[in-house]
Amino acid sequence: MAPHASSPSTSSRxxxxxxxxxxxxxxxxxxxxxxxxxxxxxxxxxxxxxxxKPAVAxxxxxxxxxxxxxxxxxxxxxxxxxxxxxxxVLFWDRDQDGQxxxxxxxxxxxxxxxxxxxxxxxxxxxxxxFSYPTRLAVSWWxxxxxxxxxxxxxxxxxxxxxxxYDKEGRFVPQMFEDxxxxxxxxGAGSLSAGELWNMIKGNRLAADPFGWGAAIFEFGxxxxxxxxxxxxxxxxxxxxxxxxxxxxxxEAREQGKGWNKGFGLxxxxxxxxxxxxxxxx
Length: 281
Known about the structure:
Blueprint: E1 15-17, E2 22-24, H1 37-40, H2 77-80, H3 84-89, E3 99-100, H4 102-111, H5 116-135, E4 148-149, H6 173-183, E5 190-192, H7 193-202, H8 209-226, E6 231-233, H9 234-241, H10 244-254, H11 265-280
Antiparallel strand pairs: 1-2, 3-4, 5-6
């Protein structure tokens, strides 16, 4: 979605966002002249034309203007009984015992195609930092195995995030649409690495280094896994929130098709080769 140039006198005029995703007229101001950032980061004011009550969080469906009914997988079986945040991590709970061991984290990242070193790094970041917060749902005592508890995953919500998950782990459609109305500056329906970085910086809260680091790891990993031609599509990002895309990647890799998105070591080496050739020329 592309933000439109605006002046203080036009803050409540009809708003049209490119791509057919967001059109609407507001009877009140949605920008403030004394806060230029409100002009620079437009809200998705017309999300309600595509999604019923977009400000109301969905317990088990991640919906968008492109997918107003969410993912079919979220409506059936085990996933239906879980919040969207829980669905996001079920990929790593293969034995369905509600606990994600460090080994589970490692295997999951390897199944997604990440290297041994990156998967080990993910274990340290995820299980060391999020085990105790999720453990608080069942006990005050730290878990000696550094397990992450699916039932308490909402307690692992950190600051400086996108706000798409609410504090109980539900999915807020309005916040998801706002990601693209604010940061997809060209209305492409996708986000570049630079736009994701601007979003991370824009969401930073004061005195929250842990939240800053967590957001960088989460969205950095998302870009490495999902980018195609340098951008992460809106639909891929939506499926990341409910975790359905992880199963699709695993299936594609197991069937020998391979995953045709993402950025790996080979891509890094190719970038280096191109850089060397450019300097020689």
